[in-house]
Amino acid sequence: MVATISFSVASPQGSRKLSVSYERAGAGEPLLLLHGIGHHWQAWEPVMGVLAAERDVIAVDLPGFGISPPLAGGISYDLPTIGAVLGSFCTALGIEQPHVAGNSLGGLLALELGRGKIARSVTALSPAGFWNETERRYAFSTLKAMRSAARALPLPMIEGLSRTAAGRTALTGTIYARPGRRSPDAVVAETLALREATGFQQTLAAGGGVRFTDDVPDVPVTIAWGTRDRLLLRRQGVRAKGVIPGARLVRLPGCGHVPMNDDPALVARVLLDGSSR
Predict the structure, then answer these.
(1) CA separation, residue 43 to residues 46, 101, 207, 263, 272 (Å)
(2) What's the pTM value of the predicted model, to 2 decimals?
(3) CB-CB contact of 20 with 4 (8 Å)
(4) Burial environment of residue 76 by CB neighbours within 10 A (0 to 12, 13 to 18, 19 or more)
(5) Which of 89, 148, 206, 249 is the most exposed place for a label (fewest CB within 10 A)?
(6) Cβ 61 vs Cβ 40: under 8 Å
(7) What DSSP assignment string belongs to 56-86?
(8) Over its length of 277 residues, how does the chain's per-residue pLDDT go in tens digits?
(9) CB-side exposure of 40: number of CA atoms within 13 Å?
(10) What is the Cβ-side half-sphere exposure of residue 50, based on CA atoms within 13 angstroms?
(11) DSSP class of 1
(12) Is 4 within 8 Å of 21 (Cβ atoms)?
């Protein structure tokens, strides 16, 4: 069952209260899952069952995404601030130093939590922040085009497209290597999540100058990249390994930018291995 928790965070205008929605399942050491920009916690559904057999899994709707409301006025969507918000979220749940895994934006946030010693271990799937300027512009332009398309299509057309493999490819082929495997209901839900994400513009604006350039020396780090990632090209994984020399770099054959649906068994194994280090 999806739950919501409220807690206070600091802002330039003083303390502000915000709420975050999340799905929690399983038992064991805590594993926090962070989705990418424009997505929602359901991105992790293909691997949740396997993970929950061995971990206390908490999949979050980031502020301004899914059903989590946007950040209150005066709170920025920049990397240190969102990292602090997630730290406060963990404190509110009574979770001390969880394992953290994330995809894309979520991978960057997971690394930020590792850098801040909030995470016990980090597993980052195609994390943002290791691009050069050309690659960043390409990724941002692609994301904006996906958002514009999602906002332009009427709901009956989205539902109609979702019923065929070709339609699901048109809607989600940029982020999945095997979009035909995604269920029609999931494709409709994630297209609407992208369309309705109140934190999309602020997150993209805050990410324009972001580069992850620090080592994370005292936290086990796994970086995994799909060989068919069309949004953040896999050569960025080599850069990430250069920045974090102690990281384990894993190849995800045949997977796209959001690999959890392309190969759930492989991704679940990588996440379990990463959170065992």
Answers:
(1) 7, 12, 21, 13, 17
(2) 0.96
(3) yes
(4) middle
(5) 148
(6) yes
(7) EEEEEE-TTSTTSPPPPTT---SHHHHHHHH
(8) 799 999 988 777 778 889 999 999 999 999 999 999 999 999 999 999 999 999 999 999 999 999 999 998 778 899 999 999 999 999 999 999 999 999 999 999 999 999 999 999 999 999 999 999 999 999 999 999 999 999 999 999 999 999 999 999 999 999 999 998 899 999 999 999 999 999 999 999 999 989 999 999 999 999 999 999 999 999 999 999 999 999 999 999 999 999 999 999 999 999 999 999 7
(9) 25
(10) 16
(11) -
(12) yes
b/e 239-260 (16+ beta carbons within 10 angstroms → b): bbbebbeebbebebeebbbbbb
Per DSSP, the three-state class of 170 is helix
Cβ-contact 222, 123 below 8 angstroms: yes
CB 142 within 8 A of CB 173: no
Q: Which amino acid is at 42?
A: Q
